[in-house]
Amino acid sequence: MTDERTVMIAERVHAIWCRELQNDDVAYDDDFFALAGHSLIMAKIQRAFVLEIGVEVPVDQLYRNPTVASISAYIESLQTVAT
Prior knowledge:
By secondary structure, the protein is mainly alpha-helical.
């Protein structure tokens, strides 16, 4: 069950990144900043996480976890603590 939830979170994060970066070719290990990500896009992603996943991710964590894989793992860790 945890693996299934982890995959679901990663897929949702990936979809948000693709939409906000306007790039359907984002790999799970691509760096946000290498994909021309900037603070405005980051703010949109942060808001989408609240609205679509139901989790607040501090800006510093977005900088520390600049890939879909790493930020998904961070979000998963938050949800594991919450349950």
